[in-house]
Amino acid sequence: MAQSIRYFAASGKARRRAVMDFKRIELIFLCTFLTLNIFLLYTFFQGKNESVSSNGINNMQNIEARLSEEKIKFDHTFSKESGEAYYLSATPTDFYELDSVLASGVKLVERQVISKDISARQTVIFDEEHATEEATHFIHKGNQVVFGDDYEYHGNLVADKNSFYFSQEYKDIPFYDETSALVLNVEAEEGGNYKLLDYTQTHLSNVEELREKQSIITEHDAIVTLYLSNKIPSGSAIEKTALVYTRIYAVKEKHVYVPAWYVWVDTNGSNTSQLEKVNAFSNTIITTTVSDLKKE
Q1: Per-residue pLDDT tens for 113-131?
Q2: Which of 138, 212, 236, 274 has the smallest number of CB atoms closer than 10 Å to its CB?
Q3: CB within 8 A of 253, min separation 6: which ones?
């Protein structure tokens, strides 16, 4: 009888402990959800307030003429075509949990970063004239790269002749940061061909829309905003622009991404670009970094 009593007492304690653990997990998820929503509301109202103060943008329909007056170089007319995009959330892929990946010969740099030495195992050469197509074929074919089909070539985002840059996309807009990149490092050979040395990879899983799609500002609007904010000084050069998804917030394992116009500006003629970012929803300059906002 005493043994039975001890058994039921222990069982009761185990059940109470399980209930407490469940409630603790439930509380963690609730806090994470509330934090994300508070942050999204903050960025929404901040964007509304700041965009109201920049109505002067409408008075600069011909930004190209103003740039030319100030000897600011650019190579194309900035598009006034608007589009739509989303607030997104995603989870960095934990490669440590994927046994099949670790068994394929890759090196675990961090839990969310892997690399693989290709040249030590095989010789892969990309023809000079078709290097981009052959590099894309390499990551998409067979089992050379885990999740290879999730990446597309975006060499326009990275000016490095010794690498080929790929990233994930969401409805034709690429992610551009360290959480969703596949970089093939190459070595130039005589004759102009490229020898593949190795690659480094990060990946996003569970990409989800946090809101319905919304209108985004045009490339032209982003340039005007930067110009009015003195981010494009006289005598500088606008090297290139790109619409990307960028990470603005990280809480636990969930990251939040917004569409942003990235503008590379050469301010001193030294071929060292200054990267400027404009939130494509609020038309405000992104000045904070993920490290500033990240909550442990």
Answers
A1: 999 999 988 999 999 999 9
A2: 212
A3: 91, 92
Residue ranges and CATH numbers for the domains of the chain are 10-87+210-293 (2.40.128.690), 93-205 (3.30.310.160)
Residue with tokens 């939130």: 279
The closest alpha carbon to 117, from 144, 154, 143, belongs to: 144
Contacts of 128 (CB under 8 A, 6+ apart): 191, 192, 193, 194
Instruction: Spell out the alpha helix ranges (H) of 70-174.
Output: 99-102, 131-140
DSSP notation for 136-153? HHHHHSTTSSTTGGGEEE
Helix/strand/coil (H/E/C) assignment for every residue in 192-240: CCEEEEEEEECCEEEEEECCCCEEECCHHHHHHHHHHCCCCCCCCEEEE
Residue 249 CA to residue 257 CA, distance in Å, equals 7
Give the residue ranges of the chain where pLDDT is below 70.
1-59, 270-271, 288-296
